[in-house]
Amino acid sequence: MYHRHLETLIVSRSHELEQLLESIPAEDNFTHRFCTSEHLTQERLEAASIVVVDFAAINRDEAFKVLALSNNDTIVIGCFSSNDFSMLSDVQHCLTQVWAKPFDDEKIRKSFSRILKEIKQREDARLNQVYLDTLIDSLPELIWFKDARGSHLKVNDSFSKTVNKTKAQIEGRGHYYIWDLEPDEYAQGEYICLESEEIVLDKKETCLFDETVKCGGEMRKFKTYKSPIFDADGSVIGTVGFAHDVTDLQNLMIELNIMIEGLPFAVMVTDKDKRITNVNQKFIDIFQLERNEFAGLWAESLLDETRKFDRSKKWAFDEENGSIFMHSHNRVLELHDEKLLDIFGVFTGYLST
Q1: Same domain for 85 and 14?
Q2: Which of 133, 218, 314, 345 is 20 to 30 A from 339 in CA distance terms?
Q3: CA 326 to CA 300: how far, in whole Å?
């Protein structure tokens, strides 16, 4: 996806190194150009990704000029003979590698090849970082990475916006600071964020939690997935979290419950497989079961083909002229089913009255 062009400046009186280095193949996505010169210019130094300096070709002042003008990403290689070692002690802290003269061609090739591989690894890592940042910052959900102690290492734009803090303010900080909580407030509230982190670290697997957080002075509900991050040796070194705000959805469910509870007749909501997802109180009163007994129950299980009318199966049904009637020992109900469709028109369940 990317392409990099490497300029290698060789400061020397001889073209020996240039001829040697040109024989080394470039890494994938890279091209090279080599230039040998005794004359140093600021423009050449600033353009160079790699600077190879033959310290026999320049004096001490020129050597420090090279080191001063090279930027932090520039790889500087020093070439020394036994006569130049006195200068090595002054500049070695600025050098990436030291090549001894006279040159061993095979060692020089291996050394320069390793440098090229390291540059490629650095660029690949940078590209992977761009991939990750672009992905997480394009999502509206909150995403974060933590170390095993709970310090935030990385967050996305949505997380930063939600807590009203910059990424620089967030990174390296813990839960209380980021969410503007005092420990006492956390202990007395319905918060489980810290405890859920411990669960993930202990189980070493992805877990789903319903979590409550305070954002800008108001409480919000999140569906949160948290997963462990493993080191090369298999130990857990942190966690990654993905939180979807379901506050508005839960508020909508409350409004739906208020609506169906206000209807003057029994209401049952099922999924497309006819499993019960919701009922109103009038439905509960008719069928004489507890509300939690309906959750996930097959709608057909309320019907009793044997007509024994026990507590959990006290209804039988008949079809007449296209209408469905439910019978018990003391009443008859007419059943109406309406299909529920999602925003795309896909069938998702039934509303039965």
Answers
A1: yes
A2: 314
A3: 11
**Half-sphere exposure at residue 74, Cβ-oriented, CA atoms within 13 angstroms:** 24
pLDDT, one tens digit per residue, over 238-274 is 999 999 887 766 556 666 667 776 777 777 777 777 7
The pTM score is: 0.67
Spell out the residues 6+ positions from residue 339 whose beta carbon is closer than 8 angstroms to its own.
Answer: 347, 349, 350
Two tokens, residue 133: 């940042």
Inside any domain, residue 47? yes
| In a domain? residue 251 | no
Pairing between β-strand 268-271 and β-strand 276-279 as defined by DSSP bridges: antiparallel
> Same domain, yes or no, for 25 and 124?
yes
User: Per the domain annotation, does 338 fall within a domain?
Assistant: yes
> Cβ(142)–Cβ(222) under 8 Å?
yes
User: What are all long-range contacts of 93-96, with beta carbons under 8 Å and residues at least 24 apart?
Assistant: 94/67, 94/70
Question: Per-residue pLDDT tens for 307-320?
Answer: 444 444 556 666 66
Q: Cα–Cα distances in Å, from 249 out to 145, 256, 290?
A: 26, 10, 25
Contact 208, 224 (CB under 8 A): yes
> Other CB atoms closer than 10 Å to residue 90's CB: what's the count?
12
Question: What is the Rg, in whole angstroms, of the alpha carbon atoms belonging to the chain?
Answer: 35
Structural domain boundaries, residue 317: 263-352
